[in-house]
Amino acid sequence: MTQVDFYILPSADPLARLDFACKLTEKAWRMGHRIYLHCSDAAQREELDARLWRFKGESFVPHGPAETEPESLVVLGLGDSCGNHQDLLVNLDLKVPAFAKAFARVAEVVVEDPAIRQAARESFRFYREQGYSLQDHRLQRL
Question: How many domains does the chain divide into?
């Protein structure tokens, strides 16, 4: 059964989700995981791509778009397909993608923005009703 982790950030800035996604991705990639970063739209994906390039001066996380680099260890995707990825899903969309059940782990990143918190509550209810193993992590600082 898929493990779902909710990371609750002490920020109201929606861009803090992308910064945290970069940190989480780097850590998981260094541990040997394959990561699928599910974005809500092309603008969010472009911003996340830019942040992955510059978020930490001394490190680099190789990544690419899911459509052109599906076998990369770290991909940024949109839409209804996650390709062959089944390890870690970092969901940055406001709804649970239909393919979430294919992953061993799902990370939901939440900030104090009202729309994002409400979407996270709905996602939490969905995961709970489906019987997923749930864990929340309340972060003190970024």
Answer: 1
